[in-house]
Amino acid sequence: MSDDIVSKADSFINRHRAQSGTDLPDNENEDIPILTDIIPTEDLAAQEHLSTNLKHEEIAQELDNWLDKNLPLVVTHALDGITDKLIAKIHQTARKDLLPRLQEALGDKTRAE
User: Fold this and answer.
1) Is 98 found in the same domain as 54?
2) Residue 89: its pLDDT value, please?
3) Boundaries of domain holding 33
């Protein structure tokens, strides 16, 4: 039954084209699908693949833009925190280990004089 409906629709469209004078030359008709044309699945798969690739490219571009905008700030904040912690650790270690040795060394020299 559905084939019958499709066939009738195609006939109607073809009659309408012929009556309105909008019939295209034969070589152009080949590019225009009619209701009974079957689109090869390879073409659909290729279109899907192309669409997926475009989406991936858009996502990659958005990621690149976000990284260009935000990464320098994030890295700067992280490095500032690391720098502050590093300086504090160096001061703590110097007071704990180096200061007593320096005081001892200066004390020994003072005693020798």
Assistant:
1) yes
2) 93
3) 1-38
Instruction: Answer whether residue 6 shows pLDDT above 80.
Output: no
H/E/C letters for each residue in 12-72? HHHHHHHHHCCCCCHHHHCCCCCCCCCCCHHHHHHHHHHHHHHHHHHHHHHHHHHHHHHHH
| Tokens 């020994």, located at residue | 108
Region 63-90: mean pLDDT is 90
Q: What would the mean pLDDT of 58-64 be, rounded to a whole number?
A: 90
Q: Find the mean pLDDT for residues 32-44.
A: 65
Instruction: Please give the tally of structural domains in the chain.
Output: 2
Q: In terms of domains, do 56 and 7 share one? A: no
Residues 34 and 46 in one domain: no
